[in-house]
Amino acid sequence: MIELTQAPLTLTFELFANRNDVLAFVTTRVGGESSDHLASCNIGISEFEPASTTISNRQRICTALNIDFEKMTFQSQAHSDSITVVDSNNAGAGNRIKTQSISNSDALITQTKGITLFAQAADCVPIILYDTKNKVAAAIHAGWRGTIKRIAQKTAQKMIAEFECNPQNIIAGIGPSIGRCCYEVGSEVVDAVSSSFPNSANLLISHNSKYHFDLWEANKEQLEETGIPIQNIEVAKICTKCNNTLFFSSRHDNGRTGRFGIGITII
Ligand SMILES: [Zn+2]
What NCBIfam families has UniProt attached to this entry (predicted)? Predict the structure, then answer.
């Protein structure tokens, strides 16, 4: 990934870096006001710190990126395959008050300029999609449940079905998340992956008599299946647990951690 802003530190994908019609960004832990185990740029409102601190971090990011905080849009993220279209009616949901985030939703789509779609993560996979021709953007949260429910694929399919997107014109960024290096999973996940993916053998890597699940490949494959060209899909290949000084990792911190996230704004 490429550095976008220094304070707070944000990154972007090479596929999105030189475009003047869309802004794509991944936030990091660096450059915020949070302390202790949330140091320092936590953007997930939780019981661990006053909401005012979290909101201030969100505002710092918007200021650095020159985007409108009032249109920074959050969703509840319930490990579902529910997708919400965002327009002027629900833009900015949840930016100050968590309970006002778009409910029952793990993916957001918009074709409205200036709205920032945001997905939070701390090991789950944050993904963005953008149709460069029809100018349609999406932000997706995919943990193992969402990955098995194929939320990334369903989001691309919804863009194709309802926004007349041609998958050949869609570019995708698969952001930092727990990598297969660190993502040991139990029998519940192994069974679910095996029954959901015909080619599960390359998604479940045997390691010391346990299995590791490759979330990056599972999401990349389902985007390819919708017709998005492989060269249009960029995988950050950054493991959040291995890089926990840059990104929050729930596994590294046993759940007592903050959130970073991925955002996309049509300019
Ligand atoms: Zn790792």
Answer: peptidoglycan editing factor PgeF
Query: Which are the contacts of 98, defined by CB distance < 8 A and separation ≥ 6?
Result: 45, 51, 74
> Residue 243: what pLDDT?
98
- When divided into structural domains, the chain yields a total of 1
**Residue 171: phi, psi to the nearest 5?**
-110, 150
Mean pLDDT for 174-187 is 98
What's the length of the chain?
A: 267
Predicted pLDDT at 152: 98
Taking the centre of ligand 1 as the mean of its atom positions, its distance from the CA of residue 180, in whole angstroms, is 7
Tell how far the Cα of 185 is from the centroid of ligand 1, in angstroms: 13
Prior bond of 8 cis (ω within 30°): yes
Q: Are 236 and 174 in contact (CB under 8 A)?
A: yes
Count of other CB atoms within 10 angstroms of residue 14: 11
Distance 237 CA to ligand 1 centre (A): 10
Give the distance, in angstroms, between the CA of residue 131 and the centroid of all CA atoms in the same chain: 17
For residue 31, the enclosing domain spans: 2-266
- pLDDT band of residue 3 (cuts 50, 70, 90) is very high
Is residue 158 very low, low, confident or very high in pLDDT (cuts 50, 70, 90)?
Answer: very high
- CA separation for the pair 99, 78 (Å, rounded): 13
Tokens standing for residue 64: 């650095």
Ligand 1 centroid – CA 263 distance (Å): 23
> 53-65: per-residue pLDDT in tens?
999 999 999 999 9
